[in-house]
Specification:
CATH class of the largest domain: Alpha Beta
CATH superfamily of the largest domain: RNA 3'-terminal phosphate cyclase domain
Number of helices: 9
Distance between the termini: 25 Å
Largest sheet: 4 strands, mixed
Number of domains: 2
Helix content: 25-40%
Low-confidence stretches: none
CATH architecture of the largest domain: Alpha-beta prism
Strand order of the largest sheet: 1-2-4-3
Length: about 350
């Protein structure tokens, strides 16, 4: 039984999600207490955690103690991951991206194709937008699988949500222990900047005031300092709640081949000028581009558990976050690996 301290490091929900993913992957059971202790009175399991656990019960026949919203302790015993089509409705604007963080890793080593149809929020505070997963994270994971593709069917904003995505994963390997030929992560430096892309997605109610176009124009004006193509699309949709976001990503190459992708984003919020939103998202990306490192701060957090499958991998990041260090703590409990972490580098022996 692996025992985890839920208050360790950042004391947030990422610790639980990473533990769930690694437990389902390795078949090792775990127990965690003081869940989300760093969140004070709002600690304990949230909806996206409960739905991730429920989904894993179906996908790998897991057993757990009795849990509910706000539960501070979890015991989780996984079974074998199965192929299939699984449908989950997180409800309201619960984060689709955070939910998927617990499922992608084990599903990449299922005995056949896995399709996840998920309803919930496609963006929100303190979470990666689904467009970030689609354009920044998933390209790095294609080395492990035959195919991994995320389709956004509907947008869902706070508070009502209603977003829908479909994630299809076609595995290449039956076990995470069969990866000797898979290229290691070598993401110390970014490489040559080839292009900057982006997407502003918003609810239809904001079209009359051209909110999307104003965000796009401001972001492009900031990013035109680089001598590369800048292409940002604007997309209005019928949604249950008024909202939106801008997601930007920069694509780099090395020796003519795509190497790294860095991301930046910002939410559309009431009372916040469109021009400020575009500028803040652009400045976030500019900070990552100008650092010269191979991953952005948020991607570093998410890559830790995937890096652990390929000893000898390394990455450079502008700032190693407390989330990254927390994820290292969890990974080292489940896998026989040792990370080396300093302020701007993460590597694995």
């Amino acid at each position: 039984m692996i025992e985890l301290d839920g208050s360790y490091g950042s004391g947030g929900g990422a610790l639980v999600r990473v533990a769930l993913a690694l437990s389902a992957l390795t078949g090792k059971e775990f127990k965690v207490d003081k869940i989300r202790a760093g969140k004070g009175d709002s600690g304990g399991l949230k909806a996206q955690h409960l739905h991730a656990i429920k989904a894993l019960k179906e996908i790998c026949g897991a057993e757990t103690n009795e849990i509910e919203l706000g539960s501070k302790e979890l015991w989780f015993k996984p079974g074998k991951v199965k192929r299939g089509i699984y449908e989950v409705d997180i409800g309201t604007a619960g984060s689709i991206s955070l939910f998927l963080q617990a499922l992608i890793l084990p599903c990449m080593f299922a005995p056949g194709k896995v399709t996840l149809k998920v309803k919930g929020g496609t963006c929100g505070k303190w979470q990666a937008p689904v467009d970030y997963l689609q354009n920044v994270l998933l390209p790095q994971l294609r080395r492990f699988v035959e195919k991994i593709e995320l389709k956004v069917l509907k947008r869902g904003y706070y508070p009502k949500g209603g977003g829908e995505v479909v994630l299809e994963i076609t595995p290449k390997f039956g076990s995470f222990e069969e990866l000797s030929e898979v290229p290691k992560f070598s993401l110390g430096e970014s490489g040559k900047l080839e292009q900057i892309k982006g997407r502003v997605n918003l609810s239809r109610e904001l079209e009359e005031k051209k909110v999307g176009e104003r965000i796009k124009e401001t972001a492009e004006r900031e990013l035109n300092k680089y001598s590369c193509l800048v292409d940002i699309a604007v997309e209005y949709s019928e949604t249950l709640s008024v909202g939106g976001e801008v997601v930007l990503w920069a694509v780099f190459s090395e020796d003519g081949e795509r190497k790294t992708i860095l991301g930046g984003d910002d939410l559309i919020e009431k009372g916040k000028r469109s021009e400020d939103i575009g500028k803040e998202a652009a400045e976030m990306l500019i900070k990552e581009i100008d650092s010269g490192f191979g991953v952005d701060r948020n991607l570093a957090d998410q890559l830790i558990m995937f890096m652990a499958l390929l000893p000898g991998s390394s990455m450079g990041v502008r700032e190693v976050s407390k989330h990254s260090k927390t994820n290292v703590y969890v990974v080292e409990k489940f896998l026989d690996v040792v990370f080396e972490v300093d302020e701007q580098r993460v590597s694995i022996k």
